[in-house]
Amino acid sequence: MEKVTVVGLGYVGLSLATLLAVGNEVIAVDVDRSRVDLINNRQAPFKDKEIEEYLKTKELNLRATTESEMAYREANIVIVAAPTNYDPQKNFFDTSIVESIVGDILSVNKNAVIVIKSTVPVGFTEELSRKYGDACILFSPEFLREGRALYDNLHPSRIIVGADEKHKETAEKFATLLKNAALDDDIPTLIMGKTEAEAVKLFANTYLALRISFSTNLIHTRRRKGLIRFR
How many other β-carbons are positioned within 10 Å of the β-carbon of residue 146? Predict the structure, then answer.
C-alpha cells in the first residue's frame, strides 16, 4: 500500500484519487473548500458516472483536505494535476501553479516521488529536474475524456511514464501502481524520457483537435452541398 497525495481535484486529479484509493491511502488536495467537503461526503463535484458510483459504493481510503503541507509530508507519491491553461496570446502554457506546487512539496518532503499529470510544454519536467537536483520528478500523460475520466483510468488504452535513467525503476513502479488499479489486463506500458512523454501528450491532443476539426468541416461542407439535412 502506497501513501499517495493528489493535488488538484478536477477530472484528472479526482479520477486518479478515486482509482488509487481502492488499494492505497490517498489524500486529495484542493484549494476549493466546497469541493473538498463534497468529496469527504462521498459526493462528486461534477458529472462522471464511474466517479459518482465509486464514491457511493466502494470502500475508498480517501480523504480530501485544503491543508497541503500535511498532505505532502505524509506522502510517498505526490501526483500533480493542477491546471496549466494555454495562453493563445503568449503561445505558451501557464505552468506557474505547477511550479509553485512542486517547490512546496520539496520544501517539506524531499523524498517524495513527484508525478506531473498536468499538460505542460515539452522540456518542462526536465527543466524542473535540473532546478531541484536529486528530486525524483516524473511525467505521466493522461488520455481521459471529460465525464468518463475514471472509466478511462480503469480501462486505459496505454500507460506512459517519463523518467530519466536514474529514476527508471521508480517510473516502472508507478506504472505498475496504475496497472494494478485498472480493471484490464495486458495494458500497453511504455517507460521513456520525460521530454518524449511530454511530446506524446501534446501530439495526442493535436491529433484529437485536428480530427474534430476535419470532421466538423466535412459535415458543414456536405450540408452546404445538400448531402446532409438537419431537422
Answer: 11
Residues in the chain: 231
pTM, full prediction? 0.87
Q: Helices then strands (H, E): number in the chain?
A: 9, 10
State phi, psi for 148 to the nearest 5 degrees. -135, 30
Amino acid at 74: E
Q: How far apart are CA 53 and CA 103, in angstroms?
A: 35
Helix ranges restricted to H, the chain: 11-20, 33-40, 49-57, 68-74, 96-108, 124-132, 149-154, 168-181, 194-224
In one-letter notation, the amino acid at residue 171 is A
pLDDT, one tens digit per residue, over 142-184 is 988 889 999 999 999 999 999 999 999 999 999 999 999 999 9
H helix intervals, 75-193: 96-108, 124-132, 149-154, 168-181
Q: Amino acid letter at 107?
A: S
Beta carbons of 230 and 223 less than 8 angstroms apart: yes
C-alpha cell at 191: 517507460
Q: What is the pLDDT of residues 47-95, one digit of tens each?
A: 999 999 999 999 999 999 999 999 999 999 999 999 888 777 666 788 9
d(CA 120, CA 140): 11
Burial label, 121 (beta-carbon count in 10 A; 0-12, 13-18, 19+)? middle
| pLDDT band, residue 229 (cuts 50/70/90) | low
Tell me the angle at which helices 11-20 and 168-181 cross, rounded to the nearest 10 degrees. 80
